[in-house]
Amino acid sequence: MSAAPYRYPEISRRAVLQRFAAMLVLGGLLPWRQALAMQTGIVRLKGKVHLNGQSARIGQLVKDGDHVETFADAEVVFIVGKDAYLQRAGSKIRLESGSGSTFSQVLRVISGRVLGVFAKGDTQIQTPTVTLGIRGTGVYLEASADKTYVCLCYGTAEYIPLADPSHTITQTTQHHEKPLWIYADASRPLMAAAEPINHTDAELQMLEALVGRVPPFISNPSPLRNRY
Q: Residue 214: its pLDDT value, please?
């Protein structure tokens, strides 16, 4: 069954309330008026987090060209434009402009674990073993030098395994149906089916609420929903 079209609601009173609710989930770290007004930047920070090699702080902007690194027992949630990210401990990412290519932006996951929700538009995600082309999705990744875990939580993505780009595939999902491991070793199968791990629907709802949206599984529930 193909995925239902993703609806991106207009910013409305409902969206404002969703953003307020999201900030409550974030633990009340910001006054609610400040939280509702925030359009971009770091909204939650726990433990040791660096932005461009310096200690990060709540409210700091994150933009093209920036490096974000989380250390042991750290976590950061931040908004960039109409996209939102939850970066777990021990992770390194870089945000890049997609100028000169068909992509409006590039997320480079150097290592570690990242959950992201993305607005309409062509975004590329790069890891050591796979390149993803996405257009308005929710994605969870765990990246290392020899393998990448990808859960396309909802939406459509093109997967290009770097070990053999001829094995490119396209997936469409509604609710975590097709997680994959993508490997660096071309002597073995490059992709293998996986199970949903280490991310939740509540986290996806929180991230989407920060940018005034709701995940599609809220209005289009699937049988897998109870697994989270």
A: 93
In this structure, the chain runs to a length of 228
Asked, for residue 227, whether it belongs to a domain, the answer is no
The alpha-helical segments, DSSP class H, found in 44-183 are none
Pairing of the two strands 123-126 and 105-117: parallel
Which stretches of the chain drop beneath a pLDDT of 50? 1-13, 16, 28-38, 222-228
Which run of H or of E encompasses 36? helix 32-37
Residue 62 domain-assigned (yes or no) = yes
CA distance 153 to 196: 9
Count of structural domains, the chain: 1
Q: For position 2, what pLDDT does the model report? A: 39
What range defines the domain where residue 105 resides? 13-213
What is the rounded distance in angstroms from the CA atom of residue 196 to the CA atom of residue 80? Answer: 26
Q: What is the CATH number of the domain that holds 49?
A: 2.60.120.1440
pLDDT at 218: 86
Residue 135 · residue 154 · CB < 8 Å: no
